[in-house]
Design goal:
Number of domains: 4
Strand content: 5-15%
CATH topology of the largest domain: paralog of FGE (formylglycine-generating enzyme)
Distance between the termini: 54 Å
Largest sheet: 5 strands, parallel
Helix content: 25-40%
Shape: globular
Strand order of the largest sheet: 2-1-3-4-5
Number of helices: 17
CATH superfamily of the largest domain: paralog of FGE (formylglycine-generating enzyme)
Mean pLDDT: 83
CATH class of the largest domain: Alpha Beta
CATH architecture of the largest domain: Alpha-Beta Complex
Structural class: alpha/beta
Amino acid sequence: MCLPSEQVKRLVRLLTPLFDTIERRRNILMWAFWDDQTLQHRVDFNQSPIDFTQALITDFRNNCGALMSLLQAIQEREEGDWIDRLQPYVEALREKLLLKRPRYKLFISYRRKSWDFTHRLVADLRNRIDADIFIDFSGINSTDFEASILQHLRESDCVLLVVSEHTFDERIHDPQDWMRREIGEALRLGKPIVLLAHEGRYPPHPDQLPLDIRAIGGRQGIEFYPRFYEAALDKLVEFIPQAIANPPAPYQPAILPPDRLLDEEGAVLHRRLIMLCEVGDYRGALPLLEHLATLQAQREETVLLRDPKRSEPNEETNIISVSVAKRTVAQILGEPFAWCNVLAGMVRLEQGGYLDRNAAFEVKSFKIAKYPITNAQFERFMRANGYHQPRWWTSEGWRVRIERQWCEPRFWQAEHWNRPNHPVVGVSWYEAVAFCNWLSEVSGEAISLPSERQWQRAAQGKHNLIYPWGDEFDPTRCNYASDGTTPVTRYEGVGDSPFGVADMCGNVWELCLTDYQTGDESLECLSAGRVRRGGSWANTNPKSLRASKRDVAHPAHGLEFIGFRIVCNES
């Protein structure tokens, strides 16, 4: 059981009033388990409130994660004192989950011909180390590869690579070879890799390996011989925690000198690639490197741009800007669009999330979009093949896109949510970031989601207003407690902020860069939640629409009441 029986009884009594109608039951479960609709078919919605609640909690008696998701969704949806009333149960479940979680996650990469050795190794490791060990003994097909094998690899703490006589045979030069892809992905992500040298075999010299896995060449490992198997196993168990504690840097294949110029698209990509490498973001640079290789007829190199006015490259100027006619953001997105200038100043953020107390921060001047991004504007990103260009996505965002097979926002086919001048909804934080990266590339401007400090500064102005228009709530100035979104211009002129920004209160919650738990504003930090601001059409309590109200959105979830707007920072 996830909770003691007495706690379960108290929880059932506490939750029963929430499930008083069938509609509320369906809404709460849809809110909590939007990506798993099987639960809707496992429970009987026609029972009495007490019987329904009892059956629901019983269904979760051995699934602590699902029960915690339900309680946290109720905390978010119902707000008020429900947060405090349910928090003791949430904390108890969290402790239970932590106790059950294995200390490490290990991924085994091996050739099928090494099955006997690998099978024995895994069986012995499971008795010697507290770890969740993933290994595929049954075989997979190509359609399962991304969703199964790579997902486990990316979630692992350490990769154990079995090196046998077959590991680096001629198949390793095939780009679709599973083992090559596993090694390449582990190197790209900077995963600790421990070589298990079966009968003393090691990878060949780097010059004999493909570019994407060249970093594995020439490494040493733990040698396994039949007579010394137990000693080698002891050494491995001792070494795994050390390897996890000291992960390597992500692998970046060398960027080699040029032999011909890139076309316009390649030039833009190359400048972005060099920028990422210069700041050390190799994880973000590698997808671009791979795409450039494809553009150059599968060559395993990229090229540096030369000034066409020079016959030879100059070491100080061998990377130059290409003059490309850029369209403005307004020209790219179309109406309705305008920038609002937000002056530098102070903003006071409330306690919560990553802040353990109220705090004041200085915000530099910036420009913010007057309106949230509309469906018609987001469609331009889709027409630019945005869902199939990894260079615009974060590494984790691209993994999730592949895993869930995204090709459009979640509610894109629903007429109720897809009116051209309404804010786009059903987009996750990952999709919003990809949109911003695309727009940055095609416009040449530094476009991003706003940080929560920027968002609140734009909403409150210098007088720290409670709502964008003043300190008193006025339901005629925003869209709230309704049945859906309204055009982004509907409340223009009556609900504007002091800087002229429209629709910052209600209509849709707006995604921000800021990590809810840590305050990190980098794109590549792994996050369980990003800040959202402004309230939405679904909120019924005006307190949720305050300009200083902070809430959280999972970066992979697209919901019908969440959208976003963009900012332009000084580059």
